[in-house]
Write the structure tokens for this entry.
Amino acid sequence: MTVDSYTALAKHFAAIVAETTTPTGAAAPAPFLETLPADVLNWVVNFLPDDAHWLRWFLTSIVAIVAILTVFGLTFAFLTVTERKLLGRFQNRYGPNRVRIFGVRVFGFFQPFADAVKALTKEDIVPTAADKVLHLAAPAATVAFSLLGFAVLPYGRHLTALAGMDAALLYFFAAGAASELAIFMAGWSSLNKYSLIAAMRALAQLISYELPLLLVAVPAVMVAGTLSLSGIVEAQGGWLGGVVPHWNIFTPWGFAGAIIFYIAALAECNRCPFDLPEGESEIIAGYLTEYSGFKYALFFMGEYFGMAALSGLGVALFLGGWQAPCEFLQFVPSYVWFYVKLVVVILSFMWMRATLLRLRMDQLMRLAWKCLVPLALVNLATVVFWERTAGWDGPALQAVRWLAALALVVVPFVLLGKTLSAGFGPRKYRYA
Amino acid sequence: MLGTGILKGLYVTAKNLAGSYHDPERLTTIQYPEETAHIPENYRNYPFLVFDGAEAVAGLRCTACKMCEKECPPQCIYIVGERDPATKKMRPKVFDLDISVCMGCGICVEVCPFESIKMDQHFEVAATERFEELLLHREQLAKPDSYYHKIHPTEAAVSDGVLAAEKRKAEERAAKAAAAAAAKAATPPVPPTTASGEPVSA
Ligand code: SF4
Ligand code: SF4
């Protein structure tokens, strides 16, 4: 490279730094807390000389990475114990409540630290016949790929790690698809038939559910007119009468899309009721069978990171991202809203896990290809209708618009449901 | 409609979640070290030795008759008897019970003629060693009668009845013997006399 291209590169990085650090869309008066993260970043970066673009870019990235790892690492730690406690409560049990540190027992919320010590000190068993390199690389790859998605999530008004990325959604799905590779790596390298079956299941499942996931993300892109997640979130700003937010979920297509997205996201994170790759009752622990100790913990971490990233995407696409639910609640910083919504979505995942039973492989495929994909395609038509009729004025026309769009959502669902569940009535018990 | 079943299920689990916080009746877990499960009166695991009075080893009812040692199917009792120099009664010098072998059959209890050995309810017997720590000696096995009454009230009452009946019988027997001796003394066919012809004083 010539000196010229270096300077060009340096300018490019400087632009990225500027974009990440300077508040965009500073129309609203920025309160102190709102800009605090960006201010801290600026303060850190300003220790470096002005013309050290490389270093500035590097430091900005490091700070962003550290921040994401800290926040979501801690979120992961406490989600594991929250999940166990909630599952307990959903089943009328206490859940873990024992661990104490220096005699302090915060309802057992120190459990993750005990778990970490346990995972770190456990023996790391690698099967003799396993492909050692892949076996070691798979857990790391899972975590790495699931972390990629965090780079483009808009955490707050001025808080996106890669704010300059205008194909954020594409990037997110590309990064998400890579996690399938990691799972297959784990299943293949273990040289265990259960692991391999699980890996095949996981591949089939993840590829099948990627389709509805993508198809329902398209409407949000069509309405906002941008692939940038920050743009999609900004397009959901504003309130009807100051209380009803303009989030996508409050439109007929958004509602249907959010539900399809929710189901597909559950399947993408291998969570109950779609946890076939880890079906304990059939294939031991699936692709985790040959993993122990810290590698096992890494897989768990990757799974939770993936779940958090997908929930974050769902929040950005349908739940208005960092937008406050009511106008007068705007004094709460935007990133708090994002986090609250994220946690609510993840908690609802846990509720699902406590309620539903695991599907069978053929049921899983049927749900994806016969139910979710057609509904997602119809949803595309709905959003086209919704956008074409955006100019309709007056209550009568608006009512027609809403009713027609609702019909477009409900009628296919009911019809499809009838056809799919035909012949699957309530089971009659006939004394075996 | 498709999906209504899921909504119903979600309602049920949500009810559990809310209910488990305001209605402790729903939670069936017994939080062990703080709370203990209710142990039924007839629960038994391995035997202990009952003692009367204040001193544990001195008050043991056991007479070292070795009936239990002989009857114990897995042979987990080991007894060495000795004679108490003061009372001239037999008592166990060694009474060992291997609780890692005892199968809790209660045969020792059934054969004991002295209401001495009874089944215990103490179950927190974890030890850090396999042999010595699970071999209980008479000091550890001796427990007061009040403890017996606490853990098996009905059985202890029956046991008290047996002991009382035995005591009464023994007293009657003693009284009868005393009476017989007295009668014997009162009507001597030929009162024994000393050389000087005076009756022998009792
Ligand atoms: S309970 Fe049975 S096994 Fe245990 S000491 Fe008594 S006779 Fe032996
Ligand atoms: S049978 Fe009763 S009195 Fe005899 S040795 Fe055993 S415990 Fe003691």
